[in-house]
Amino acid sequence: MRLRRLLPLALIAALLVLPAAAAGWQEAPHSRARLIAAGTANADALAGRTHLRTPAQLVGLEIELDPGWKTYWRSPGDGIPPQFEWAGSDNVAAAQVLWPVPTHFRDAAGEYNGYADRVVLPVVVAPKRPGAPVSLDLALDYAVCKDVCIPVSAQLSLRLPDDTPRGRQAVLEALRQVPVRADSRGRCGDLALADARLRFDGPSPRMEITLTHPPGGAPEDLFVEAATGQFMPHPKRQEATAERTVFHLDPSAGGDPRELAGKAMTLTVVAAPQSCEMTATME
Length: 283
Fold this sequence. Notes:
This protein is mainly beta. The protein is built from 3 helices and 20 strands.
């Protein structure tokens, strides 16, 4: 992660937390946030997306942004990832935030991964005592950015079960945008990881990732995260045939690329009809 230009600290302090508004919204600079109920989690909808067992409750963290403003994904690039603290909650064994596939943005300040206009992050909530009410209290830190970045803190709450889970459709739609995890062979159906390696035979080091897919099913985009936390620039498509796509990136932007040899990488492959999250070990 690399940080974009922030507002002066004195101004940030004045903007960080604003009072909550009606309907659960907490207003903030150039954005607002709330928790929305989506009812009982459906095991089929969650398949391949969570390690938590059902029965569980499904909620959404909804963030709306002013036109032209953006917020960040979990691995933002030149940005600030959201932080979630659920310590004030009651009857919560675990709360797992799921991430719809982001968009890659590029501007004068750098490159970053995130969301524009609006995002709903599905959250799977496993209660300690199934069947008993759940009280969610979230301390949320996130950033909104345009020409500058403004860090924002919000205190959000929700009580479950909610007899009128009006957010269910929005959360289920967001859930469909969350990648499923690949199987043990590195496959999501006909989309597969064929090779992932570091190469040092050119003018600069490069990471080369090869994906295979059915004709017409080429991936739309790729995001790479290092388990070491090392910054990974956005991959570029280098080769493409009907059934094979190769992406390259220069890993030296985040440090010594040789330190990545033998290390696990998370690959988020954006593809239709279903995006996929794969684990690759760099050769």
